[in-house]
# Entry
Amino acid sequence: MIDIKNFSFSYTKTQVFDNINLQFQKGAIYGLLGENGVGKTTLLKAISGLLKPTAGSWCVSTP
# Structure
């Protein structure tokens, strides 16, 4: 399971995420949909550790 709590991220002057909370369950399939520039790739890079959040946290847990 991936648990994202109070996650915020911004590039220099552009706020991408502001205090979001998400939970992805183990074994489920999710899709990220949205227009260009809304943060899909930024979210994946943050979860993979390539970008650090401005605030909040995420964790991967195995029950």
About this structure: The mean pLDDT is 86. The chain has one helix and three strands. The CA atoms of residues 10 and 40 lie 13 Å apart. The two ends are 8 Å apart (CA to CA).
